[in-house]
Write a structure and sequence with these properties.
- By secondary structure, the chain is mostly beta strands.
- It contains no helices and ten strands.
- Strand 3 and strand 4 form a beta hairpin.
- The mean pLDDT is about 95.
């Protein structure tokens, strides 16, 4: 499993966040896994266009399909409750291991961008 360096940019209605991480690329499933500063483990499945983030308190999983409505799932572990959120990928641009997803989550626009550097 090759180690890679990635730059992740998240643009939300409130902020723009850009960070660099050491990550692991899993070629057999075409996915990238990295750990954020708050110990959240993030997995990006490039074939499925799936984003999964998990920490002690939350599990979030978004499956993106361009120009289609899907459901995002957020589980609050301490409450044992799962929420379904309305999700629509407006645009997905992927070149090799780099991916950029523009999406609407519950009427707010977001942009997630992962680049191998």
């Amino acid at each position: 499993m090759p180690k890679i360096t990635i730059k992740v940019t998240l643009i939300t209605p409130e902020l723009t966040d850009e960070k660099t991480y050491n990550a692991i690329y899993h070629p057999e499933e075409n996915s990238i896994i990295y750990k954020e500063e708050d110990k959240t483990t993030t997995k990006v499945s490039l074939n499925e266009k799936r984003l999964r983030r998990e920490n002690e308190e939350l599990l979030m999983e978004y499956l993106f399909a361009e120009e289609k409505n899907t459901k995002g799932i957020v589980t609050v572990k301490s409450l044992n409750k799962t929420l379904e959120l309305n999700l629509k990928a407006k645009k997905i641009n992927q070149v090799d291991k780099n991916i950029e997803i523009n999406y609407v989550l519950e009427n707010d626009e977001y942009k997630y961008k992962l680049e191998v550097i």
